[in-house]
Design a protein that fits this description.
Keywords: Dioxygenase, Oxidoreductase. Residues 7-131, 152-269 form the VOC domain. GO terms for molecular function: dioxygenase activity. It contains five helices and 16 strands. By secondary structure, the chain is of the alpha+beta class. It has one domain (8-314): 2,3-Dihydroxybiphenyl 1,2-Dioxygenase, domain 1. It is globular. It starts with 7 loop residues before the first strand and ends in a 13-residue tail after the last helix.
C-alpha cells in the first residue's frame, strides 16, 4: 500500500535582508515570527520561521536571509509559487490590504478558484486563495485580524524539468491523488486539510538557479519519528538518493532530489517550536542548538539587529 503524507510541512526560501523579510511576512501578511534561529550549516545567517500562532505543520514559511547572496532565477527544479490559504469571504480584505500597502498583485483563475498573485521584496512568487477547509489561525497582528488571517499553506505550484517523473513521486511515493488538469497544470491532492493541493506544470521547464527570491526546498509531513524512518525506507527503496536523518531541533529531516529537479524534504510533525521556548514568547529570542551555545556572543555580534514591528500604515 502506498504511504500517504498529509501534505506540506514547511517551505524554505532564500532572501537578502532579514528586516525586510520580517516586515513583509509579519508586517504585510500578518504571520507570526515563531522562531528566530540560525542556519545550522551557516551560523552567520539567520533562519527565520513564520506561521500561524504556533507555526504548526502546514503553516511554516522559513527563510535564509543571505545579505550578499546572488539573485536567484525562478525556473525548473523549484517551487514556482507558494500558496497561502485564507478563510472563505476574506479575499476582498486581502485585495484591499495589498492595495493599501502598495503590493502589486494580479488575479488569475485555475481549477475554478481565484488566486491573488504577488511577489515579496526579493521577487519570491506568492499567491493567496480562499477555502473553507483547514483550521483558522488564532494570530492577529498589525492590520490583519485573526478572522482574516492566513491559515497556512493551501499548497504550491511545482516547476519540474521532468513532470512525469515528478508526478510519479507525488503519486507513488508521497501518496497524493491525481485530481485533474487545467490548461498546462496537473493537480494532486493529499489527505490533509492544509498544504494539500499541489499543481505541477504539464510541460518540462528550463532549469532555474538558486538565490534570493527562490525556494530552496519544500518539506512534506511525517507523523512522528517511527513514521519518518518508514518514509526514509520508502524513498530509498524507490531508487532515489536520500540523506541520513538530520536533527533540526524542531523536527527531524531527511532530503532527496526527485528527478524533476526539486529538492524534497520529509519532516516530522513533532516536537514543534515550543521545544525550547514557551508559546507566549515564540520568536522573541535568538534560539541556538546546544552545540552553538558556547559561541552565542560571537554569533549574535555577527547578526544584524531585527525586530517584529507594526507597519506605519497600520498604526
Amino acid at each position: 500500500m502506498t504511504r500517504k503524507t498529509a501534505g506540506i510541512h514547511h517551505i524554505t526560501a532564500f532572501v537578502r535582508d532579514a528586516q525586510n523579510n520580517i516586515d513583509f511576512y509579519a508586517g504585510v501578511l500578518g504571520l507570526r515570527l515563531v522562531k528566530k534561529t540560525i542556519n545550522f550549516d551557516a551560523p552567520e545567517v539567520y533562519h527565520l520561521y513564520f506561521g500561524n500562532e504556533s507555526g504548526s505543520p502546514g503553516t511554516a514559511m522559513t527563510f535564509f536571509p543571505f545579505a550578499q547572496g546572488r539573485k536567484g532565477k525562478i525556473g525548473g527544479g523549484q517551487v514556482g509559487w507558494s500558496t497561502f490559504v485564507v478563510p472563505l469571504g476574506s479575499l476582498e480584505f486581502w485585495r484591499e490590504r495589498l492595495t493599501k500597502l502598495n503590493v502589486s498583485f494580479t488575479e488569475m483563475t485555475r481549477f475554478n478558484e481565484t488566486f491573488l498573485r504577488f511577489r515579496d521584496e526579493d521577487g519570491l512568487q506568492l499567491e493567496i486563495v480562499e477555502r473553507a477547509e483547514g483550521p483558522e489561525s488564532k494570530w492577529a497582528f498589525g492590520g490583519v485580524p485573526a478572522q482574516m488571517a492566513i491559515k497556512g499553506f493551501g499548497g504550491a505550484v511545482l516547476y519540474s524539468i521532468n513532470p512525469e517523473k515528478t508526478r510519479e513521486v507525488m503519486e507513488q511515493i508521497l501518496g497524493f491523488t491525481y485530481v485533474g488538469s487545467d490548461a498546462d497544470l496537473l493537480r494532486f491532492r493529499s489527505e490533509g486539510d492544509l498544504g494539500n493541493y499541489i499543481d505541477i506544470n504539464a510541460n518540462a521547464m528550463e532549469w532555474g538557479h538558486g538565490g534570493a527570491g527562490t525556494v530552496h526546498h519544500i518539506a512534506w509531513r511525517a507523523k512522528d519519528d517511527e513514521d519518518h524512518l518508514q518514509w526514509r525506507a520508502t524513498v530509498e527503496q524507490s531508487g532515489l538518493q536520500v540523506t541520513p536523518i538530520v536533527d533540526r531541533q524542531y523536527f527531524n529531516a531527511l532530503y532527496f532530489r526527485e528527478e524533476g529537479g526539486i529538492l524534497f524534504e520529509i519532516a516530522t510533525d513533532p516536537p514543534g517550536f515550543t521545544k525550547d521556548e514557551p508559546f507566549e514568547k515564540l520568536g522573541e529570542k535568538l534560539m541556538l542548538p546546544d552545540w552553538f551555545e558556547e559561541k552565542r556572543m560571537l554569533i549574535e555580534q555577527g547578526l544584524s539587529p531585527i525586530q517584529v514591528r507594526v507597519l506605519k500604515e497600520d498604526q
